[in-house]
Model the fold of this input.
Amino acid sequence: MSKLTGGCLCGAIRYSVSAPITELRHCHCRDCQKASGAHGAVVALIKRDDFKLEKGTPKRYAGKAASGRTLYRFFCGDCGSQLFGQRETMPEMMTLRAGTLDDSDGLKIGMHIWTNSARSWSYIDPNAKQHPGQP
Done:
């Protein structure tokens, strides 16, 4: 299997993922809406051991999620692209921003979370799993 690659808008940060991504989640929480400036975040859950920074060092923002847990958001300090997140309590897992992948053909959103805070103009596929909060 060839590894997946991705990076930020300006190219200062590049990464690779050595395991296949099988499903995307769309988070509609208010924090993801604020951070993205849009209707939330589409992420892939991956293991930290499958992720490698190839170039650059992202900046980190620590904030409290709606669950009360600390969530670290990593982004490019030059262009501001959000790249991935990690929970303080689960550093072995990451939420990779799907839009930063170079090629995401074939991937599909299989789950929508925090649908209770989704914007009225945000599309939620009725065929996907849905959770009003954190599953």
